[in-house]
Amino acid sequence: MAAFFNDAYLGTPPWDIEKPQQEFVRIAGEIGDKVLDVGCGTGEHVMYFAENGHEVWGIDASPRAILKAKKKAKERDVKVDLLVWDALDLSSLGKKFDSITDCGLFHTFSDEDRPVFAKSLASALKNGGTYHMLCFSEKEPKEWGGPRRVSQKEIRETFSRDWKVNYIREAKFEARLDEIEGRAWLSSITKL
C-alpha cells in the first residue's frame, strides 16, 4: 500500500487539492494547540494549522509526499515537523498531542488494521485529546472505484472502547476528479 501512495506522488494525486479541506477549516476552533496530522500528504493541513498558531507535526508513509511537504514549508517559511512514518506505530514518536487530524487515511485500513490504528492513535493522544477524521462514506457512489467506503457503524465499532464519539456528521471530501461526489463522514472522537 505504501508503494502505491508513494507512486501516486510522482504526479498530483486526486486527493491533493493544494489547499486544506474546507471541513477542517470549519472545525479549526476544535483543534488543540499541539497537532499531529496522520497521512499528511503534501502538508496542506499541516501548513494551515501551523499558520494559525499551532505546533504541528505531519507524518506520511510516502517519502515523496513528505519531500513535497518539506518544500512547501520552506517556500512558505512555516515551521513544522514532517516525517516519513507508519501511522500504525505512533507510539514510537514518543510524543503526545492535543489533537490528531486525518484526511483520508482511515478509509485505507483493512478491518484487521483498524483496531491497531485506534491503539496507535491512543498512544499519541493526551487523555482528553481528540481525533478528527474525514473519510469517504458508504453513500459515495462506487462507480468510479477509489478507496473503500466507511459506514458510521464501522467508525463507532472501531472507537467503541476507551473513546467517546462526539459526532459523526455528513461532510464533503474535496478532490480533483469530477466523478467524485465527495460524500464523507467528519468525525470527532475523544480519547478517554
Summarize the structure in words.
This protein is of the alpha/beta class. It has one domain (2-10, 19-191): Vaccinia Virus protein VP39 (Rossmann fold), CATH 3.40.50. The chain contains 6 helices and 7 strands, in the order ααβαβαββαβαββ. Strands 3-2-1-4-5-7-6 form a 7-stranded mixed sheet, with helices on both faces. The longest helix has 14 residues, at 63-76. The chain is globular, with a radius of gyration of 15 Å.
* CATH architecture annotation: 3-Layer(aba) Sandwich
Q: Give the CA-based shape.
A: globular
Order of helices and strands: HHEHEHEEHEHEE
Q: Helix/strand/pairing class, anyone? A: alpha/beta
Point out poorly predicted stretches. none
Measured between the Cα atoms of the first and last residue, the distance is: 31 Å
Q: Main β-sheet: number of strands, strand sense, barrel status?
A: 7 strands, mixed
Q: Class in CATH?
A: Alpha Beta
Indicate the CATH topology. Answer: Rossmann fold
Mean pLDDT: 94
Percentage of residues in strands:
25-35%
What is the number of helices? 6
- Characterize the quaternary organization of these chains: single chain
Helix content: 25-40%
How many beta strands in the DSSP annotation? 7
How many discrete domains? 1
